[in-house]
Amino acid sequence: GVEVEYQPAGRTNGDKVWLVDFANPEANEFLVVNQFTVIEDNVNKRPDVILFINGLPLVVMELKNAVAEQATIRSAYEQLQTYKNTIPSLFKYNGLLVASDGLDARMGSLSAGFSRFMSWKTADGEEEASHLVGQLETLIKGSLNPATLLDLIRHFTVFAKSSKEDSDTGLTTVQTIKMIAAYHQYYAVRKAVESTLIAAGTEGSRKGGVVWHTQGSGKSLSMVFYAGKLVLGLDNPTIVVLTDRNDLDDQLFDTFAASRQLLRQEPMQAEDRDDLRDKLKVASGGIIFTTLQKFAPKEGEALYPLLSDRRNIVVIADEAHRSQYGFKAREVDIRDADGKIVGKKTAYGFAKYLRDALPNATFIGFTGTPVELSDKNTPAVFGNYVDVYD
Fold first, then answer.
1. DSSP H or E segment with residue 230
2. Closest by Cα among 141, 149, 134, 54 to 97
3. Please, which pLDDT band fits residue 162 given cuts at 50, 70 and 90?
4. What digits encode the pLDDT tens for the residues 328-349?
5. Which of 40, 130, 224, 324 counts the highest number of beta carbons within 10 A?
6. Within 10 A of 140 (CB to CB), how many other CB atoms are there?
7. Can you name the residues that pair with 347 across neighbouring β-strands?
């Protein structure tokens, strides 16, 4: 909202004006305008279609004629870049851009290069649209219906810093890049949030499921969008993000840290086992990054101690199918300082230690490769697939 002051009966009151009602999409005014004229610095331009929400020009569409030989989706994209340079005021409020040659259609953010303009391949999120239906129709029905468009702008848009070195001068410039979810990320996150809310309920199984999205499809960002939605969906939850290697922990943490506006808080990294325990013994809130190994018991502990029995704790596992997620006991060697075996002790998979620490937490896994058929641990901890993008 926007902070305002007003004066009823001579008193000065402060309040917020909400420019968009995100909770009730139908309460907003949606307007589609063809050939809207924009004049800036004596330059007169008329973008093909602008979508206004409550008077804000949030979507600009450039549509080339499908029968014109030189009209390509690339030329539609280039036209949008021309508008950005010549009538920049129009783009102060921009949510997203759409380029189409009448048949193919792609959408992207204000800062996206041509390769980052993506198709929207389903009108309802349930099945891929037929090839007999034009992509523009599918994109409009799927992503530009009022509820989805507001959701994309509110919950599926993040900003990240990107450094770029000029090969001629050697100077490095830092740019802010705006990123919007692709269709597979959008629908997967919605399904995963719904599944998690059911699993975390009083009668829930505490298994949020597994999201399998092929490598290179933006899994880390999907996890950010999921966490952002979950912060609002659950009552100030604690979110634990689990990796099994320090370098992966750092990479994922950096992605989350860059998206703190969407997450509404600063994510934290557990430094060691004691720090992890301290961070988890809180009454509510927090996004905590840790490696699996920090859930190992200390020397002399037969069981991992209870840290919190709250139900609004969600554990997100990156690459969810690993042998460590077992419950069964096994005998392991105890070695002295010289590496000689001096005895045996009973150890468990990390699934058991996690359950001892957070018995009422809900678990969800994100993975870039399919779960092996022989892997019985993953469904036991996380449940079944909630979304697959292969």
1. helix 219-233
2. 149
3. confident
4. 666 667 778 888 888 776 666 7
5. 224
6. 19
7. 330
**Rounded CA gap, 353 and 326, in Å?**
10
Other residues' Cβ atoms within 10 Å of the Cβ of residue 218: 16
Look at the chain and count its residues: 390
For residue 29, what pLDDT is reported? 98
CA 127/CA 119 separation, integer angstroms: 14
**Residue 311's closest CA among 227, 198, 222, 193?**
198
Instruction: Find how far residue 31's CA is from the centre of its chain.
Output: 28
Q: Which element (helix H / strand E) includes 29?
A: none
How much is the pLDDT for 301? 82
Yes or no: say if 76 and 66 are a contact pair by the CB < 8 Å rule.
no
- Residues 351, 380: contact at Cβ < 8 Å? yes
**Beta partners for residue 256, in sequence order:** none
* Residue type for position 87: I
- The answer, as to whether pTM is greater than 0.70, is yes
List, for residues 189-246, the tens digit of each pLDDT value: 999 999 999 999 999 999 999 999 999 999 999 999 999 999 999 989 999 999 888 8
User: Beta-carbon neighbour count of residue 389 at 10 Å?
Assistant: 17
Contact predicate 57/88, CB 8 Å: no
φ/ψ of 47, rounded to 5, equals -55, 150
In one-letter notation, the amino acid at residue 20 is V
E strands in the chain: 2-6, 13-17, 30-34, 38-40, 43-45, 49-53, 56-63, 96-100, 105-108, 157-165, 172-180, 207-213, 238-243, 268-269, 287-291, 313-318, 329-335, 341-348, 362-367, 385-389
